[in-house]
Amino acid sequence: MTTAATAEEIVDYDEALERYDPVMGLEVHVELNTATKMFCGCATGFGADPNTQVCPVCLGLPGALPVVNEKAVESAIRIGLALNCEIAEWCRFARKNYFYPDMPKNFQTSQYDEPIAFEGHLDVELSDGTTYRVAIERAHMEEDTGKSLHVGGATGRIHGADHSLVDYNRAGIPLIEIVTKPLTGAGERAPQVAKAYVGALRELLRALGVSDVKMEQGSLRCDANLSLRPKAAGDENQDDVPLGTRTETKNVNSLRSVERAIRYEITRHAAVLDKGEKIRQETRHWHEDTGVTTSGREKSDADDYRYFPEPDLVPVAPTRETVEHLRGTLPEAPGLRRKRLQSDWGYSDLEMRDVMNAGAVDLIEETVAAGATPAGARKWWTGELARRANVEVKSVEDFGVTPAHIAELDGLVRDGRLNDSMARQVLEGVIAGEGTPLEVADARGLELVQDDGALEAAVDKVIDANPDVAQKVRDGKVQAAGALIGQVMKEMKGQADAGKAREIILAKLT
Amino acid sequence: MSALSRDDVAHLAGLARIDLSDVELDRMVGELGVILESVAKVQEVAAEDIEPMSHPLPLTNVTRPDVVRPSLGAEAALSGAPQQEQQRFSVPRILDED
Ligand SMILES: [Zn+2]
């Protein structure tokens, strides 16, 4: 198999959308945060020494018998319920047979035609304020694979490696695979729908408390399927057009990448179809650095997994009482929670959307709980921190700034100890690891001059130096005072309360 | 059930990564065919009123609590490995597909 070294042709995104209708299918694998594996009592902690969390069951040694983890089944049912799915009254595990050393048993224990949860949906909100309903086909239980290290190759990839080293600590960790139905009708919003769906799913799984949902550590992974079909004469006829050939882009491991990968594949498919050529049904690899996908494995005979019911495990048949009990443990749906918080905080729709886009809902909730005003909390998380996160391609929580820090900073501003530009400097210091806002302000000597005498002296000096402007204010042009305030702040080297300066100026001139 | 063909056996051997010679293929078609025929006899007694089953015991919901049990330890885990390196199982070069 070769990796395409040359960039493939693409067409302009908007042009592609003029001629084609994109259809997506998203498969998300989520690692559950159970203490033990799916079928054995081995621990599941991330980052343990290689092969220290393994036993005869997860190593596939002869005679070992798997037993299902009760908590994993409960988590699977709760996920299914939160996705508005039906829960199977009776379902089995199945063996998915394939030969690859990341699975020591030579099969993965999964579910085939009897998933624990099926036929659901998740409504996702898009940044333009509209809602898209993602239809869920199924959510089923399975187990994760081991991790391979390829030795001898130039880049640590399989290509060119002469042997591989396998660590089975991850083999057998419970996974839930959530599969959507083909998602149609998204049109040019398709990449955004994909991103919003994975984001909403992550939010939901986090609220359920069933997974760490860390995409960068692989506890949430997304495979994105895409196909294009010709655009029909009218929207109402679009669903009569048969689906095109799809490609599956594997392991797209950040929200932004999900969006970019779908967008890229739309432009690549369109270029192939424009030339009258056919799309190869294959897996594609996403390259974060270059923002392109490259050709992977073509679907072949090797995909004949010869599924059959797992004889070593008995069926799972959750009683309706169990299902209803678990339904009672579901948290407030993230969408409803957001509406409640928005009303509690008094944010406009636009402000709330900024908060969501910055991924700051939880942070603001904690910041307000720590004593900040909702307005102050929003200002910092979606202002300065979101701006930085955007520039540095990070998330707002990556700067080491905690809700407690922001609450303290907000308090210092409200108490009149810091003005806005000083508070910004304090935040810089917190990000630089200099301590809490109070510590940074102390260490850097940042404090508004509370000495009204010094401020009055500065105001007098500025009025004397700017008689024309002062006269305008005396004549009733209050907005001219702004120029004087700026001069006063300069005079005070920024360490003054601008509001107070304004008060004094107006008192003297009007 | 239709009889097992030579192509079926070749396909299965490919999936199982078993390299069979022509002679072996011919022999396996015969031997596997006999096994399939024998097992197929079960279907003769399977009446409408008998539910298909995948498990001999009438049990459901056999689970264990989510409580950690001791693992083998790396040394024991690797003790049966023909090759090991960096506390990992060393395996021959994987087919060039990732
Ligand atoms: Zn184990």
UniProtKB/TrEMBL annotation, chain A:
<comment type="function">
    <text>Allows the formation of correctly charged Asn-tRNA(Asn) or Gln-tRNA(Gln) through the transamidation of misacylated Asp-tRNA(Asn) or Glu-tRNA(Gln) in organisms which lack either or both of asparaginyl-tRNA or glutaminyl-tRNA synthetases. The reaction takes place in the presence of glutamine and ATP through an activated phospho-Asp-tRNA(Asn) or phospho-Glu-tRNA(Gln).</text>
</comment>
<dbReference type="InterPro" id="IPR004413">
    <property type="entry name" value="GatB"/>
</dbReference>
<dbReference type="InterPro" id="IPR017959">
    <property type="entry name" value="Asn/Gln-tRNA_amidoTrfase_suB/E"/>
</dbReference>
<dbReference type="Pfam" id="PF02934">
    <property type="entry name" value="GatB_N"/>
</dbReference>
<dbReference type="InterPro" id="IPR023168">
    <property type="entry name" value="GatB_Yqey_C_2"/>
</dbReference>
<keyword id="KW-0436">Ligase</keyword>
<keyword id="KW-0547">Nucleotide-binding</keyword>
<dbReference type="GO" id="GO:0006412">
    <property type="term" value="P:translation"/>
</dbReference>
<keyword id="KW-0067">ATP-binding</keyword>
<dbReference type="InterPro" id="IPR014746">
    <property type="entry name" value="Gln_synth/guanido_kin_cat_dom"/>
</dbReference>
<dbReference type="InterPro" id="IPR006075">
    <property type="entry name" value="Asn/Gln-tRNA_Trfase_suB/E_cat"/>
</dbReference>
<dbReference type="InterPro" id="IPR017958">
    <property type="entry name" value="Gln-tRNA_amidoTrfase_suB_CS"/>
</dbReference>
<dbReference type="GO" id="GO:0005524">
    <property type="term" value="F:ATP binding"/>
</dbReference>
<keyword id="KW-0808">Transferase</keyword>
<dbReference type="GO" id="GO:0070681">
    <property type="term" value="P:glutaminyl-tRNAGln biosynthesis via transamidation"/>
</dbReference>
<comment type="similarity">
    <text>Belongs to the GatB/GatE family. GatB subfamily.</text>
</comment>
<dbReference type="GO" id="GO:0016740">
    <property type="term" value="F:transferase activity"/>
</dbReference>
<dbReference type="Pfam" id="PF02637">
    <property type="entry name" value="GatB_Yqey"/>
</dbReference>
<comment type="subunit">
    <text>Heterotrimer of A, B and C subunits.</text>
</comment>
<dbReference type="InterPro" id="IPR003789">
    <property type="entry name" value="Asn/Gln_tRNA_amidoTrase-B-like"/>
</dbReference>
<dbReference type="GO" id="GO:0050567">
    <property type="term" value="F:glutaminyl-tRNA synthase (glutamine-hydrolyzing) activity"/>
</dbReference>
<protein>
    <recommendedName>
        <fullName>Aspartyl/glutamyl-tRNA(Asn/Gln) amidotransferase subunit B</fullName>
        <ecNumber>6.3.5.-</ecNumber>
    </recommendedName>
</protein>
UniProtKB/TrEMBL annotation, chain B:
<comment type="similarity">
    <text>Belongs to the GatC family.</text>
</comment>
<keyword id="KW-0547">Nucleotide-binding</keyword>
<keyword id="KW-0436">Ligase</keyword>
<dbReference type="GO" id="GO:0005524">
    <property type="term" value="F:ATP binding"/>
</dbReference>
<dbReference type="GO" id="GO:0050566">
    <property type="term" value="F:asparaginyl-tRNA synthase (glutamine-hydrolyzing) activity"/>
</dbReference>
<dbReference type="GO" id="GO:0070681">
    <property type="term" value="P:glutaminyl-tRNAGln biosynthesis via transamidation"/>
</dbReference>
<keyword id="KW-0067">ATP-binding</keyword>
<feature type="region of interest" description="Disordered">
    <location>
        <begin position="75"/>
        <end position="98"/>
    </location>
</feature>
<dbReference type="GO" id="GO:0006412">
    <property type="term" value="P:translation"/>
</dbReference>
<comment type="function">
    <text>Allows the formation of correctly charged Asn-tRNA(Asn) or Gln-tRNA(Gln) through the transamidation of misacylated Asp-tRNA(Asn) or Glu-tRNA(Gln) in organisms which lack either or both of asparaginyl-tRNA or glutaminyl-tRNA synthetases. The reaction takes place in the presence of glutamine and ATP through an activated phospho-Asp-tRNA(Asn) or phospho-Glu-tRNA(Gln).</text>
</comment>
<keyword id="KW-0808">Transferase</keyword>
<dbReference type="Pfam" id="PF02686">
    <property type="entry name" value="GatC"/>
</dbReference>
<dbReference type="GO" id="GO:0006450">
    <property type="term" value="P:regulation of translational fidelity"/>
</dbReference>
<comment type="subunit">
    <text>Heterotrimer of A, B and C subunits.</text>
</comment>
<dbReference type="InterPro" id="IPR003837">
    <property type="entry name" value="GatC"/>
</dbReference>
<protein>
    <recommendedName>
        <fullName>Aspartyl/glutamyl-tRNA(Asn/Gln) amidotransferase subunit C</fullName>
        <ecNumber>6.3.5.-</ecNumber>
    </recommendedName>
</protein>
<dbReference type="GO" id="GO:0050567">
    <property type="term" value="F:glutaminyl-tRNA synthase (glutamine-hydrolyzing) activity"/>
</dbReference>
<dbReference type="GO" id="GO:0016740">
    <property type="term" value="F:transferase activity"/>
</dbReference>
<keyword id="KW-0648">Protein biosynthesis</keyword>
<dbReference type="InterPro" id="IPR036113">
    <property type="entry name" value="Asp/Glu-ADT_sf_sub_c"/>
</dbReference>
